[in-house]
């Protein structure tokens, strides 16, 4: 197949009839053994993927103009031209790297200067069509289009990565990459490997039948092979339902440069619609009551605050377990009616807020101490990798007496975020109808129905367990998540098609750095200089986007002991950006001596608690915005920040604009 019109050719040892026959036989065989021959390596598991070292060489016939004196000169010319290409920075939930224009744009350019600067790449693209396509067809038996190839260059700089995906797009039949990394590239210290994921149980390994439509869900669960990049090495594979792979993070300071693309042809079949392997179960809010006398002289007894209804003098003879958790865990500032009103106004105008120092300091410290001592075996990996990669604490909501059982303090916080009492607190903080017993809901009823002014708590009742479920928000099962270097979630894990309006709640527990602020204003808005924020360059921040839009709606950086609340609607999704190797999580509980910390050798981790509250059915069917409450208006009379929602619509955030424009916003109109 040598073509004298090009100054380069496929390495002759890969182009002999005997090699082609041996390779094709191994490629089409069901034998799971790897094929190794003259610098070629064909992996059969987890899917067929071939690598050819020293792929291109100077034209051996010497009949072409501009022949290269050596392979070294040839590859240097390729690298030089590739680096002169115009590159654009690419960044989303799945990847961060720089990508060039397609080389076809250079071959079509009328600019003599552009053509002269990229002559090698233009020739190489033509060579792929005329020489490489016939060669690949002989090796694989795959029918390829003779005049179509996607051909671009990518540069992976420090911390750049391409996460797990399968490359399956219409008409992509063979994916290829030609590496131009330095000769001494060390994958141990510089990373950048092509990692291949298995979709099969270890006990049932077989060569995937890519030509048949899968009849069972196919999801990647384990990296079983890695190909380190080598200068002048070509790698190719056929995209299929099984071809999950990633480009591992670039750990060094040198660029990982490559030329890559796809040859087109009839695609392999894939599942009609991939099932979500980890459906999010919704749970009913819990309500359990015990008798507990209120004794003013007893510091452990619970003084009713604005959560119950500060307008009434109460002498309760019973108090619910969940309310006890509210008073024990949540900082008093967030149960104060005046502060709740301020927070509501901010939330209504922005549809998001981050509440600093949300948990009482003593309980937060107790929680961090417990998390630091949890055994590694209590954490399980949450995947699959094409959707997410983090650890979750198992069995928190179930009875477990084993050594790996979640500590009681962790279970307490779990119960709090599942409770009806928490629905009331969140309703009063955000102005969203999550529970009918919130202050705003009660004042709304009193305003509209004067005969029903008596509070539910005046009769010694708390959030009633008899409340119809249609009037209660449905929370997802609270998840304690552990984040380490390499953790992430992808948009594929978000239910973008969900038609529900929801309040997404994330309590960042620890590992994100200290917060040293006692100022109430800084606590509320998180903008004080003394707040030590987690740098976005490390990843780990939560990003919200709207379906079909490129710009971010919101990006939230995690802070220790801060509760982030975001009101999201249909077509709005979020992801947690990949945590790269620059990240330096802080010790969860520095006061513990090293020998008392978790005994595993894993790197420092970050922890959060994630819950999503889906609006009650009755709210979804009601009008989008309630009428104002005169009593709340009196409470905040004269506040210099007094503003009515809707007075300045142009200043609303994208989340609120989308909610209002759709006519589905369920935010209560704050009377201030």
* Average pLDDT: 79
Number-wise, the strands total 29
Strand residues, percent:
15-25%
Low-confidence stretches: 287-319, 445-465, 515-530, 621-650, 662-672
- What is the tally of helical segments? 16
Domain count: 2
Rg, please?
A: 30 Å
In CATH terms, what is the architecture of the largest domain? Sandwich
Q: What percentage of residues falls in helices of 4 or more residues?
A: 10-25%
Which CATH C-level class of the largest domain is it? Mainly Beta
Q: What structural category arises from helix and sheet content?
A: alpha+beta
At the fold tier of CATH, the topology name of the largest domain is Jelly Rolls
- What is the end-to-end distance? 79 Å
Region (Disordered): 445-477, 511-533, 589-672
Biased composition (Acidic residues): 629-650
Pfam families: 2OG-FeII_Oxy_4, Ofd1_CTDD
Cofactor: L-ascorbate
């Amino acid at each position: 197949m040598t073509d004298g019109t090009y100054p380069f050719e496929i390495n002759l040892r890969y182009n002999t009839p005997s090699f082609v026959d041996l390779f094709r036989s191994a490629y089409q065989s069901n034998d799971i053994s790897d094929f190794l021959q003259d610098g070629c390596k064909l992996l059969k598991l987890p899917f067929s993927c071939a690598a050819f070292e020293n792929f291109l060489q100077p034209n051996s016939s010497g009949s072409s103009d501009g022949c290269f004196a050596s392979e070294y000169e040839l590859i240097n010319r390729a690298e030089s031209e590739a680096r002169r290409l115009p590159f654009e920075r690419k960044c989303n939930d799945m990847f961060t790297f720089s990508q060039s224009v397609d080389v076809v744009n250079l071959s079509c350019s009328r600019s003599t200067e552009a053509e002269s600067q990229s002559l090698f790449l233009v020739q190489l693209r033509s060579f792929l069509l005329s020489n490489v396509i016939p060669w690949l067809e002989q090796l694989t038996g795959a029918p390829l289009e003779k005049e179509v190839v996607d051909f671009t260059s990518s540069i992976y700089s420090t911390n750049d990565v391409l996460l797990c995906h399968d490359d399956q797009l219409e008409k992509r039949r063979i994916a290829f990459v030609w590496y131009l990394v330095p000769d001494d590239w060390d994958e141990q210290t510089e990373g950048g490997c092509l990692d291949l994921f298995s979709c099969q149980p270890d006990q049932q390994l077989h060569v995937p039948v890519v030509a048949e439509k899968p009849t069972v869900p196919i999801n990647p669960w384990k990296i079983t092979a890695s190909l380190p990049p080598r200068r002048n090495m070509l790698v190719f594979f056929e995209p299929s339902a099984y071809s999950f792979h990633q480009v591992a993070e670039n750990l060094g300071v040198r660029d990982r440069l490559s030329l890559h693309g796809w040859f087109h042809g009839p695609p392999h079949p894939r599942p009609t619609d991939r099932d979500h392997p980890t459906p999010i179960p919704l749970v009913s809010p819990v309500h359990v009551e015990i008798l507990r006398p209120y004794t003013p002289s007893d510091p452990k007894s619970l003084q009713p605050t604005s959560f119950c209804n500060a307008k009434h003098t109460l002498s309760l003879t019973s108090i619910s377990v969940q309310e006890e958790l509210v008073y024990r865990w949540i900082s008093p500032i967030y149960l104060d009616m005046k502060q709740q009103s301020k927070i509501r106004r901010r939330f209504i105008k922005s549809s998001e807020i981050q509440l600093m120092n949300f948990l009482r300091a003593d309980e937060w410290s107790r929680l961090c101490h417990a998390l630091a001592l949890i055994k590694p075996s209590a954490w399980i990996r949450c995947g699959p990798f094409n959707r997410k990669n983090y650890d979750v604490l198992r069995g928190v909501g179930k009875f477990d007496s084993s050594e790996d059982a979640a500590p009681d303090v962790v279970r307490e916080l779990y119960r709090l975020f599942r409770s009806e009492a928490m629905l009331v607190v969140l309703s009063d903080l955000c102005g969203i109808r999550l529970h009918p017993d919130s202050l705003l809901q009660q004042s709304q009823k009193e305003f509209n129905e004067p005969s029903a002014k008596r509070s539910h708590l005046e009769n010694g009742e708390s959030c009633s367990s008899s409340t119809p479920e249609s009037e209660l928000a449905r929370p997802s099962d609270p998840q304690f998540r552990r984040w380490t270097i390499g953790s992430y979630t992808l948009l594929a894990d978000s239910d973008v098609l969900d038609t529900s309006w929801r309040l997404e709640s994330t309590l960042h527990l620890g590992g994100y750095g200290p917060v040293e602020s006692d100022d109430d204003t800084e606590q509320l808005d998180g903008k004080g200089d003394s707040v030590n924020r987690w740098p976005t360059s490390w990843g780990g921040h939560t990003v919200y986007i709207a379906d079909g839009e490129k710009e971010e709606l919101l990006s939230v950086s995690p802070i220790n002991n801060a509760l982030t609340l975001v009101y999201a609607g249909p077509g709005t999704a979020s992801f947690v950006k990949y945590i790269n190797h620059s990240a330096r999580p802080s010790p969860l509980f520095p006061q513990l001596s090293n020998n008392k910390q978790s005994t595993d050798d894993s790197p420092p981790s970050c922890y959060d608690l994630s819950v999503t509250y889906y609006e009650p059915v009755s709210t979804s069917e009601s009008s989008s915005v309630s009428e104002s409450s005169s009593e709340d208006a009196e409470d905040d009379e004269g506040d210099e920040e007094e503003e009515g929602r809707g007075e300045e619509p142009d200043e609303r955030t994208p989340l609120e604009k989308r909610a209002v424009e759709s006519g589905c916003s369920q935010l209560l109109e704050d009377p201030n």
